[in-house]
Amino acid sequence: MSQEAFAAQPDLKEKMVTAADGETTTEQLVEVVNSFLNSQVYLPSVEQPGEDGSVNPLMLQDTDENPVMPLFSSPEEIPAEYTEQAPHVAVVSGVGVLQAVTNASIIIDPGADHQFPLSLEQMAAIREQIAGQLDEDPQQG
After folding, report:
1. What 3 state SS string does 38-104 have?
2. Across the strands, what pairs with 57?
């Protein structure tokens, strides 16, 4: 997907701020997820991303010690304490994250008022929904 195609997508941070403001509707949550899937996100990486696209991402843990991958809507959202541990940044597509990360939850802009978590179960449900849509309409795949 070209840079222009990404630029034409709804602003992920804007959607997250709207969803975080007061009572969140299902429609707003769907808009955030769709925006995430169609956006580039910034992934703190412990090492320089490989030429083959491989990344060694910074991983956090939730309160139950489950793995959580922090993602950011822009490089400016990455806090200094993250860049100390992971000085490199990989730019990845939201849909690429959804397809590749099957063993961790994600959180977009952790620590911000508009942070947006997706659990392992939610990510699996989104993958299943997308696969179902592709099965119904082969023209999309």
Report:
1. CCEEEEEECCCCCCCCCCCECCEECCCCCEEEEEECCHHHCCHHHHHHCCEEEEEEHHHHHHHCCCC
2. 45
Kindly give the parts of the chain with pLDDT less than 70: 1-10, 137-141
Q: Which residues contact 117 (CB under 8 A, 6 or more apart)?
A: 68, 105, 106, 107, 108
Residue 138 CA to residue 125 CA, distance in Å, equals 20
Domain boundaries, the chain: 3-133
In the Cβ-directed half-sphere of 84, how many Cα atoms lie within 13 Å? Answer: 3
Per-residue tokens: 35: 């925006």
